[in-house]
User: What shape does this take?
Amino acid sequence: MKDLEKNCRIALVQAEPVMFDKEASLKKALELIDKASEKKPGLVVFPELFIPGYPIGMNFGFSMGKRTEEGRSDWKRYYDASVVAGGPEFAALSEKAAELGIYISLGFSERDAVSGTLYNSNAIFEPDGSYKVHRKLKPTGSERVLYGDADKGYFPVTETPWGPIGALICWESYMPLARVALYEKGITIYISPNTNDNPEWQATIQHIAIEGKCYFINADMIVRKTSYPADLNEKDAVERQPEMVCRGGSCIIDPFGHYLTEPVWDREEIIFADLDMDLPASCKMEHDAIGHYSRPDVLELTVHEK
Assistant: This one.
């Protein structure tokens, strides 16, 4: 591990996206970045699918062997609100990262520029305006009717003054080999854009921080029933949701598995913290999952990068 800058100030944004509206979601993201910048963070992190929102509870007219025209209309609306990597939304975020000299991690629905397939993706923008995109390896449950399996961008990492940073989206963190693929790249900060407000997720993220000897950034969002456009065709699915569809729970876990910041529930908030970057190294004195506490002669992971 290279020498690291001792302190990383992070701004973890728990916020409500503007559902099905990429222009308004982008505008809100840029405003929140500007607000966070008042406290001079080096890294700003947003939740999963912040542009244009996570359509929890919807099925877009899919059933076994059938689709509906109403569902197709809602799907096309979401497709139109999805972002092509490198497009104008990316240009705005790249410019903001360069303007402020910061790293920005943001989840978005990615529309492939050639095929049109949608992917659940996360981008990390760098202070020089460059970026890397990670596509979710395996969409979870009914996400599979909306998003494709990643066909590239499996495990990109971003080199920062605080060490390599990587991201796995939501339930990708329940894929043990995917976690190890990131650990093998030496990540010190593990970003998890997600919509997991269930209590058992908190145990998961503490375990991963201990296992990887890294900071775990649990980036969740707020979604209310009123977040959805009133003129969707699939009104019945929205009406079945509770008033608070996703409660958040964003927090930061240190490499010992302790809460550096406690989970925040049921409200928007920018969570600030200073990460002591001596910890990821010092914690490895007794346990290093890819180093002295491993048996490469017995166990081996093969990763097919693309």
Summary: The longest helix spans residues 22-37. The chain has seven helices and 13 strands. The mean pLDDT is 96. The two ends are 25 Å apart (CA to CA).
